[in-house]
Amino acid sequence: MIKKQIRNIYRKIRYGVRANSESYIRYLKTLGMRIGDRTIIFDPRYTLIDETRPWMIKIGDDVQITYGVTILTHGYGWSVLKGVYGEILGSSGEVSIGNNVFIGMHSTILKGVHIGDNVIIGANSLVNKDIPDNVVAAGNPCKVIMDLSQYYTKRKARQIDEAAGLVRSYREVFKQDPGEKELSEFFWLWTGKNDDYSELHESYKQKMKLVGNENIAIKKLKKNESKYYDLKEFLKEIK
Predict the structure, then answer these.
(1) Reduced to 3 DSSP states, what percent helix, strand and coil does the chain have, rounded to the nearest 5?
(2) pTM of structure
């Protein structure tokens, strides 16, 4: 605990407002940015959010902004035009990001772009036009790949295979099975309507609290027909 406190103090001294997500968001709000609840900026030190026109950025609730993301409200290409034609031609555009949005690593969001609710932006995307609600989009330039319901079906179908892959890799490195913490993203495979929520592993509960809809997640879990009786049975099946 003491080491963690010392580490946090060191980060605040060295990185200032960019020491963590909370301090950076508080700072951005003082500039006039509108940022919703439970939004997270995973590494403020390596995130560029345009401060030249901060009042032109609106970010909703439950937005996950990952490492290396850039959000711009202006361009400076007019400097070249001025060099040729002598005129100064301003550049600005509002950026809005809806609720429940994930922005993948090293993505860039250009001025004038509006991203809807319930959107996944893939890593290394260049978002130069509006993205509608309930889709997965990626690429340079960023394009809609599929709607969210298709992605949901795809991810459900991959759960067992990906969890098994995690187990095999862990065994190879550590010569033992992973525990509940290491497999906490996959616990719905062996947890469901017959389990007492209050007795779940803490790492499971943390996942249930994400994006502020724990009550909805609990109701869904109580209806879940888990494929395995428990974690032990799942691990036994993985050869």
Answers:
(1) 45, 15, 40
(2) 0.90
Provide the terminal-to-terminal Cα distance of the chain, rounded to the nearest Å: 39
8 Å CB contact between 234 and 220: no
Residue pLDDT, tens place only, 186-222: 999 999 999 999 999 999 999 999 999 999 999 999 9
Strands (E), 4-125: 34-35, 40-41, 48-49, 57-59, 63-65, 70-71, 95-97, 101-103, 108-109, 114-115, 119-121
d(CA 167, CA 165): 5
Distance CA 25, CA 8 (A): 17
CA distance 57 to 73: 7
Q: What burial class does residue 122 get, using C-beta atoms within 10 Å of its C-beta: 0-12 exposed, 13-18 middle, 19+ buried?
A: middle
Distance CA 27, CA 4 (A): 23
Q: Is the dihedral of CA 170, 176, 182, 188 positive or negative?
A: positive
Residue found by looking up tokens 């060099």 in the block: 83
71 has which bridge partners? Answer: 49, 109
Fill in the DSSP letter of residue 207.
Answer: H
d(CA 86, CA 72): 25
Q: Are 99 and 60 in contact (CB under 8 A)?
A: yes
Question: pLDDT (tens digit, 9 = 90+) per residue, 1-50?
Answer: 666 665 656 566 676 899 999 999 999 999 999 999 999 999 999 999 99
